[in-house]
Amino acid sequence: MSKQKIFIYLLFQITLLVTSVGQNNSDQFKRDSILLRDDSIAKIPLQFLERNFFEDTFKLYQVNDYILKRDEYSFDISLPNYKSLYVNRNLFENRINSFQHGFTSHEKYFFSTSKYQFISPSKPYTEVEAHESKSYTNSRAGFQDNLDVKAFFASRYKNNTLWNFKYEKTNQKGMYANSGNRIHAFSSGLQLAPTNSSLSADLILVYNNLKNQHNFGILDLTNLNNSSYRVRESIQTYSTSSNSTIKNAEYGMNLKYAPKFLTHTLLKANVSYFSSYSYFNYNYSDDDPSTAKFEYNNYYIDSNSIIASYYQKTWSNRIKLNTSLSKYIKADAALHFNSIMYDYDTLATKLVQKIAEFRAQFSPTTAIFLEGKAWQDIEYNNQYDYSVSLRYILEPYFSLQGELGINSISPTLLQKQFITNKKLLYNNDLSNQKRSYIQAKLKSLHQYLPTVSLSIESIDNLIYFSQLEYYLQSNTRITHQNFTLHHNYTHRYFGLENHFSLDRFSPDIPHWNMFTGTHKAYVNASLFNKAAFAKFGITTTWIDIPYVYKFNPLLNQFASTNIVTTNINPNLGFFMNFKISDFNLHIQFDHIESFWTKNSFIVEKQAVYDFYTWFTMNWKFTY
Q1: Closest alpha carbon to 361 in 416, 398, 324
Q2: I need a labelling partner for 430 at 20 to 30 A (CA). Which of 10, 309, 492, 494 fits?
Q3: Which of 278, 347, 245, 330 is nearest to 97 (CA)?
Q4: 401 with 390: CB under 8 angstroms?
Q5: Tell me, what DSSP letter sits at residue 25?
Q6: What is the C-alpha to C-alpha distance for residues 618 and 151, in angstroms, rounded to an integer?
């Protein structure tokens, strides 16, 4: 039995054991040892409530949905292998409330306290997913070790205690020599909120461990047409000795006190205190840089090896006051204090952030929701973010949401400085990036009409990784427009999904213009007298960009080139989905177009992989 199968089997057994232990300790869920009684837990419909780590109340989640689901419509420019580095464009998202070091090209695959969600099920719940892929290009590796295993557990216990657990392991070998990803991500959250107590607490642990191998791409794309190199693992690459590793952990606690004497008054208030400790450790090394001497360009050092390291420790604190005057008016104020210590090879520094935050909400009816937010860093680089938003719901037709705001964001440390082999390679004098924006989203409540969103932002001092593989700052004001359209239509057995996303920068100095589309058409069917359900369909994903990108592993950054894109082929796929009770099997045939088109590449010297088959198995367990 292969290691992957043994691992999946053991993980399956562990989750079953954890679920049974959680159930036995709960006084809410009883099981008859012989027969299920009419009031047993099996009769309780499965429902989920969810809330973010920093939210106070739970919200109803989709019934009978899977927790371990992925965003099907995000299209990121990345290296060909699964869960690889991606273009981390400077779009100002998640750039506030913390010090930004800039080593974030894997950030979307990591667990974090800011993205953590508590899931509260109506009964003990376990979910396991195994994601495996196989190449049919006569690979000597057979199964390419492209394994992604996930596990999730949630249960409620007595005294309103909630425990969540999530684990993910990715072992991705890729289609080229020395191009693997290995990711371990773990998170666990505990909520203690006794019903008759004024005090509640959330405890959270998040851990991420990543190792990424780099090869700088293949020596010559024409090799892909050479019969001697039909297996891409055997095609010569620029490097077989470079890799980066990241270790990251966060330990968080959120205490909340809601005075009982305000329970029956018009004014309600609670105070919360959040504290967390986190560390981030990044290392890049190349034991033989001579194999890719010219690929290092400006950053090559005449040495037998290249080493770049960064280590950061952060102690974050936040005290917050939440108030509400009836159900119409809410307001909260918070003070953040972050102590940051980092060791950037030869540079050791301690920073302090003091942040003031205020938010007010007004909802005169269930159809109107108005919110204003203000955020100001009063200690570090004069960062700020101010915005106001309005949401209006007209049942049963549509909901309309609009927002406008301004902000000023400090450059990341990586944009300002880079140290390798104990030498300062650059020290940029960069100003804060400033933007003003307006955005609107029209969401149809009827399936015949699409959901449309539009945003326009004006950016000053934009920082980008240039064609010269340096960080540059634009002295020209740049306008960025984003348009997104999503439509999901079903009629009896037929379904159709379309998603479009358009980004336009004027002038397009960083070469970030992009137009993407994802389309899916499928047919639903019931099998074996409705004992099983199946879905069959086709998918197409395409991208339109003006220039090919290139990748610099030393900085883990993508830069545009002057190579006009003439060789990007749409990805054509066919999928089959089978569901029997709480077991789900998904089979995806990917890049079918590779049978008649070859060597499609979005990143220079990193051709897209050929025909692949992806297997995804998902189990739910409830008792």
Answers
A1: 324
A2: 309
A3: 278
A4: yes
A5: T
A6: 10
Q: Rounded to the nearest 5°, which phi and psi values hold at 221?
A: -65, -25
pLDDT in tens, 111-161: 888 888 899 998 899 999 998 887 765 554 544 567 889 999 999 998 889
What global pTM score does this model have? Answer: 0.86
Specify the amino acid at residue 55: E
DSSP summary character for residue 458 = E
C-beta atoms surrounding 174 within 10 Å: 23
Residue 3, pLDDT above cutoff 70: no
Sign of the C-alpha dihedral computed for residues 463, 467, 470 and 473 taken in this order: negative
The 3-class secondary structure across 180-209, one letter per residue, is CEEEEEEEEEEEECCCCCCEEEEEEEEEEE
Would the CA dihedral through 138, 142, 146, 152 be positive or negative? positive
Per the CB < 8 A criterion, the answer to whether 96 and 409 are in contact is: yes
* C-alpha span between 542 and 16 (Å, rounded): 41
- Gap between the Cα atoms of 451 and 486, Å rounded: 5
The type of residue at 568 is: I
Q: pLDDT by residue (tens digit) across 534-583?
A: 999 999 999 999 999 999 888 889 998 888 888 888 999 999 999 888 88
Cβ atoms < 10 Å from Cβ of 498: 16
Tell me which H or E stretch contains 13: helix 3-24
Residues 491, 492, 494, 500, CA torsion sign: positive
Under 8 Å between Cβ of 549 and 77: yes
Given the DSSP bridges, would you call strands 347-365 and 368-377 parallel, antiparallel or unpaired?
Answer: antiparallel
- The candidate with the shortest Cα–Cα distance to 239, out of 280, 174, 291, is 291
CA atoms within 13 A on the CB side of 182: 9
Q: Report the distance separating Cα 65 and Cα 51, nearest Å.
A: 16
Helix, strand, coil shares, percent, the chain, to 5: 10, 55, 35
Helix (H, G, I), strand (E, B) or coil at 621: strand
Q: Which residue has the tokens 């990007």?
A: 568
What average pLDDT score do residues 383-400 get?
A: 91
Alpha-carbon span 175 to 110, nearest angstrom:
23
User: Taking a C-beta distance cutoff of 8 angstroms, is the pair 108, 93 a contact?
Assistant: no
Are 98 and 113 contacting, i.e. CB atoms less than 8 angstroms apart?
Answer: no
Rg, the chain, Cα only: 26
